[in-house]
């Protein structure tokens, strides 16, 4: 009985990974730019918008400030610069759900 349960969990793990696909630069531009992105990390959540002019605005839940910076796509990675530039691969999880680093987000 335990063998069936373990093998079932392994299949589920592979099935969930199969849906995560690294996004290309063109996919990021068409699916993310210009849309409010609701994100959640291990410690925070908020809303970010990548604007078509290369600027970015972000709010963090519980913080009244709006953070402004710039964004660019380099080597199929989304790069954000508020004070220091950070780049990360974005994976499509299907539908309008995505992952970036340890966080996940949904696009409106």
Automatic annotation (TrEMBL):
Signal peptide position in this chain? 1-20
Keywords, sorted A to Z = Signal
- Protein name per its UniProtKB record: DUF995 domain-containing protein
Which organism is the protein's source?
Rhizobium hidalgonense
Q: Where is the organism placed in the taxonomic lineage, from the top?
A: Bacteria, Pseudomonadati, Pseudomonadota, Alphaproteobacteria, Hyphomicrobiales
């Amino acid at each position: 009985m335990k063998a069936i349960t373990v093998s079932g969990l392994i299949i589920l793990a592979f099935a969930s990974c199969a849906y995560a696909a690294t996004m290309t630069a063109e996919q990021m531009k068409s699916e993310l730019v210009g849309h409010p992105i609701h994100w959640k990390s291990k410690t925070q959540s908020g809303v970010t918008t990548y604007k078509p002019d290369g600027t970015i605005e972000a709010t963090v839940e519980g913080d009244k400030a709006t953070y402004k910076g710039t964004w660019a796509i380099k080597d199929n990675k989304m790069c954000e610069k508020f004070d220091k530039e950070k780049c990360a691969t974005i994976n499509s999880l299907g539908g309008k759900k995505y992952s970036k680093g340890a966080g996940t987000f949904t696009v409106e």
